[in-house]
Design goal:
mainly beta; Immunoglobulin-like; 7-stranded mixed β-sheet; 35% strand
Length: 1156
Amino acid sequence: MKQRTLKLAALVFALLALVCLAAACGKVTHEVVFDADGGSAVVGITVADGQAIGNAPHSEKEGCKLKGWSADGGETLFDFSTPVTRPMTLKAVWENVASQTPQQPVTVTFEDDGKVIAQVTIEKGGKVFAPDYSKEGFELVWKNGGETFAFDTAIDSDLNLVAEFSPVMLSVTVQDADGLRLDEVEVAYGQAADIQLEPTHWAYPEIFTFSGWDKPVDCVKENMTVTAVYDYKSLPESLFYFNLLDDGTYEIAVKRTLDFRYMNLDGDWGVPATFNNKPVSKIASYGLSSLYKGFKDIDLLYIPESVKIVDAYAFDGLDIPRVDFAGLEQIWAMAFFNCAFELNLPASLCEIEPYAFFQFGLINRLNSQNDRSVNLSSDCESFFMSGLALYSSDGSELVYIDYLNRTSENAELVVPDTVKTVYPALLWQAWGIDSIVFEGDVETIGSGFLYSNSIQSVTFNGNVERIEGAEATYELKGAITRDHASQLKAGAFQQCSRLGYSADFTLPRGLKYIGDFAFFETELKEVRLDGVQYVGEGAFYCQYYDKFDTVVVTNSDKYYSYLDRALIEKGTGPLFNGKAGDTFVLYAPIVAEYNFNNDDFDPENAEQFLTETYTVPQGVTAFRPFAFNDVYDIKTLVIPEGVVSLPAGVVLSDSVFQVYDHGTFTEYYFGISQISLPSTLKEINSELNWENALANESYPALTLGENFTGFVWPNGCNLKKIEYYSIHTRQTEVELPATVTDYSASGYGNMYLENITVEEGNGRYLSFGGWLYEKIGGNELRLVHIPRASANADGKLIFPDTGEYILTEIASQAAYGIIPNYSEEGEVIFDGITEIEFPDTVRVICDLAFNGCSTIKSVTFPAGIEYIGTRAFAPALNIQSITFNGILPPKMGENVFSNPFGEPLANATIHIPNGTYACWSAFLAEYGKLYGINYFKALETPQSFTYNFESNGGTEVESVQSYDLWSLPYTEWAGEGERFFQGWFTKDGSVDGDWGERVFGAPYVGKADSLGVVTLYARFGEDRYEDGSDVPFAFVVSETTRKLTLNAWTTTFFEFTPERDGLYLMKMNFDHVAYSDSGFGTFDKATNTVNGFWYTTVYDENWNVLYLGFECKAGQTYYIFYEFSEQNVYTGEIEVPLAEYEFTVEWQGEIPAQQA
């Protein structure tokens, strides 16, 4: 009996060991060895890491009772519910029970649905552990006679425990894509969750449509959270280019020249978020700028979270109600240029470049009702908005100012005292703001900040260290255009003329840096500078000064003031006597003690406030442009030795004051009467590189008035160069110094100048008849300058006798602007040049030679002329006769006789030698085609032909007397049956079928017979020719789309006979039309003309346009004519190849009742 019991115990424990081993399969396991210490053997087991052994094994030993098992030599008994985390040996702990009655074993049987799962034999009074047994998705309870068994119960007899299972209930949490909890659903293990909810996107229901959940819920086996998934309504990928970036993401750009208007993209749309399963992270430059305005009907454009960057001009031309960004981080320069919409920016925004919002909202401002505001998420950590302005997070940078939405209530802009940097061009040409107050100290105000004439007041309550100008550069990732780069080179307070009118406007304290053109055309009464380190070009320039009377500089090692009227820069001029000279920057021209511009001006009192002699301080060797601008209080100006060059605009002293007395005005002239020039002076210049401030590329260095008597050279003259238009006085005669070797045409740009003489000893220039010539080799001369008031230029140009020299060239600008002069009563006292007959020796007339001589009526060129330069006679407003005496045409520059105000050569005739028509006509036709001017039309014809027209059964056509045909006559079949006119031909093929060539007009010159007759023959046939070249050959179109291939980009005719009354428009699937020469019309056979008529517009009761079109009646034939161009009018693409296109005449609506 004892032996059987031991075997049963070993068997049961082995079964438990196998169960444990199976449970541990595939996991980290540990070996457990049992040392029975003389008792019956117990087999070792393998236990999964972290799992408990469960039931203690049973062993027997003669005379002993098993107390338990120990892992520490018997000090403590091992707890078999403890997780096993390492290999171990358990040793039996025995108690000597020889005197006690031995306990009988009991058996515990575990059953499920009648099957024995496990049996365990233990000593009577012991406890049992539940076997490792389960069913997926169910909770297990062991029952004893229907009652739940407690495993801490002492067992005194054999026991049957029956498994009872109940389903496990799980929870499914339902949330939206943004994490918002929507619902919680309870579901039995393994069953499908019954989620009734179908959410709608919280922000963009038209763009995001619910499509399901991110995890399957048809078989739930654990507590889980499911998130709503939405389908994304994305713009078609076919509209875009995708460029792979270095980081593996894409930038996106619309196909700008793709016309996708037919897609009718309206409502709400999103930009593609991915391409090739990679995110779209950037809107490229012009990325959403469709030249066809293909996005114009979209209400909301959503930019997905993947997009982090917007490049320059990304939205150029986009005018829609709203654009929302979900994850934008960087806005590059010009990103929102020339667009308008409600712009909503996200919390993720962390970088905004200068010019990011330049001219945002200005497009279609008067015609569009779309909002044009900028809004920023309040959760943004890098920026915030307050009072229609956007700031960096700490308030130190003023980044954007919304002036479009300001009203009279917020017309004052208050810049908080936290602001240290003001972005450039924030108020470029802005309105809606009357005044600006800077509350605190500012470090930098960017260039072009206040390029606006609407601001009336600026107040600085603190110091400003730096005011930038055109010289400023900014590190930009957005690539702005060359035009914008040039345009934005402006002073921070440039062109603020209304601000200059304010008596209270003064420079801020603490200025160390004043950029180029910083206060250009913004007048200050005083310039007081303490510690200034830089004053840029044109910083305080005004064309006319009204109050600027003081310049004071203190505590500066870079600048000083002279007599509190002049600003001078130290050490930046040319060396003189071994020392770097100074640069004279500007002179304050207003006399503080007496305002010459007030209404009580008295010339006698004014005289006492004039300065007899103003001597520029010794040590000055250079001048800034416009240093002495608008100066009238100085009589004699002395320029010191050491000055080498006079720049453009250095002296402007031509002031006239009028006094009204008893019905008459008396003029008083003030200003410099004499200038003393140094012997060191080498150049007088006019070139001016102030493109951002003044349009002129040149400006006279010296502009002097009525009372100027001349220059003096106390130490001798060494002048070498006089640039174009660099000296402008009212002198009638001037002498070119003997030292001058470089004189540009019209160097003396004086409109009163009659004669130029040359000082004896000049080896390069000569004067004949008061005109200036240059020796160019041998005995040849180039005419350099005809004085604008020369007696020889009054009417017909009289070329002076040049003696032993011959005139071969006319220099550029040699006769610039010789036009009529009028008396005060309006009578012509000088006609200007009206007629030119060039000497036979002239071979070259340079570009712009007679530019501005608009009164020229007649020009005769010699036989040997070789070249006539670009716009040499522009603008040719009154030209009537042009005569070429050469057999061969000369080389001609661009638009020699251009007329910007009308058709060139509209009233002119070009005369040529007899027998040269073929050569000249070919040349002028090609030349006119090259520059878009029909010079050929002005060419006189050597003879006239008689054009006879044989109609061959058509209606009779009268003969035409002309040299060429610019249009062909109309004829139609007059015989029996139906035949179609197929054109005019050079031969009569009605007999032998040889029709020769088909004739086209504009122009056609026929081959005349010996009698001077050209005969053309009409051809009729059963087939109708359609090429669109003229009314008889018009393409037939209707309300059904027709595909046609045009023969050429030229005027093309279409024939349309409607089946119903209405207003119609022609629709085409391309854009190469000059609409001014296009429309609908009716054909008048008698005059062979198409008479066009205006379209009709239909309005509703509020005068909103309902539709428009050309009024057509059913059954009547109309002709549609279009002047097609090879240039796409939307994209600017030129030389577009011909192809097959679609044409449809579309009915727009009923004819209005009052017109029906």
